Amino acid sequence: MLEHHYYFVIMKEKLFLVILFMFCVNFNQAQNYKITYSISQDKDVLYKRLNENNNLKSSASYFKKMLENSRPIDFFIIANSSKAFSYKKKTLSTDATSEILRNINNLLFQKSEFYYIDLKNDNYVFKKSINSKTFYVKFQPKDFKLINNQPVLINGYKCYLAENKDDNVKLWYTKDIPLNIGPKKYIGLPGLVVKVVINETIIIQLKSIEPTTEAIKLMPKNQEIISFEAYQKTVSKAANALFQKP
Length: 246
Prior knowledge:
Order of helices and strands: HEHHEEHHEEEEEEEEEH
Number of helices: 6
Radius of gyration: 23 Å
Structural class: alpha+beta
Number of strands: 12
Distance between the termini: 98 Å
């Protein structure tokens, strides 16, 4: 009788643990997170290139001053395991000259950027404006070759390297956080992107990740979506119009 009682207690505890585990898994999948990245330049690399480029020596001091004043700017993502909305708000003020002198990153990354990510259905759209007209553009994530190397520690996370040699991009992602998300088009890796290095000069790095009650913005319903190729043609047409005689 006593053994039967112990057996009942043990099975009850196991059932409780299973229910608790299932609840935690579902809760984590449904939980939204706010992920913040910083965007900056590798000043050491740029200083070296300025010193080595004879064509820029006359204006090197000016560029160096701008680099010295530059500060990282932030890029945000609201995400869960199935969808995400990433954005960078426009930061350039109307007083452009003083703003550039304070932080050249506000000029380099001045445009607002918005990305609607549906990981579950492999649907990716970004929002851009050209000549006051807004476009919703379907795109595909960047392709990366996963490097089977030993993990390195970045920001306290065990990270693995991936490369896209065509675009001269290296990034590091962590499997410690099961979110296949990252800044801009750097998504779809087997984990959270922790660091991106573009052309050896631009650095995008994970700054923080925390649970949030902020909702993930969805793309407006019945919104026309164009292909990336159509968007490129529109960009080229707008650029050519700048050089045409009135």
